[in-house]
Here is the input.
Amino acid sequence: MTQFLNSLGPLSFIGFIVMQASQVVISPIPGEVTGFIGGFLYGKFLGIILSTVGLTFGSWIAFSLSRYFGRPFVEKFVRKETMDRYDYLLHHKGAFLVFLLFLIPGFPKDYLCYILGLGHLGTKEFLLISTVGRFLGTALLTLGGDYIRHQQYERFFVLSALAIIIIMLSLVYRDKIEKVFQRWHRLADRASLKKKTKYSAHAVLCIIVKSGKECTRREDYTIG
Here is the structure.
């Protein structure tokens, strides 16, 4: 893979970005491999930039395909169990919870791009959340590749040990973390429902008091 990118010469930057984007959309190779290669070939700073561009581009493609073609299309890429597991994300924006899912290792970030395309997040919100959420993992992988490139093996092993500990803890407690996220989502839904109910009651009261006259507040027109 590194030989292929090197053979592209000046176009290797574009080739790497396309490779990173492709592993999000169709997952031909693990993202951990491409992130590591980015650090090995281009160093930590340029590697992080190129990886971030590629991952953001790939995330946008997956999200847009999902939004345009809908659930039947997504189900061709995402298993039913995964769809059911994260179905709660489709009923409320939950921007902060989505950010945590992208931030914490062990969650299927590439599949989330497809799933979230079916939900309420706007494209700009999604790109901001997914890009910032992926950054920590991208930086760690790129640093690992850069350390090997410069034969800084002690730093590499320390970084690898830290990454393994974080991943293991995430995997062990993933179910509990997801339950917490689902509980937060339910609380957010209840708060949203109470707000809508309040506005609906105000609209009815406005109609009664004003005897059919037009209400002046914007909230008066929210009926549910």
In short: The first helix runs from residue 2 to 7. The radius of gyration is 22 Å.
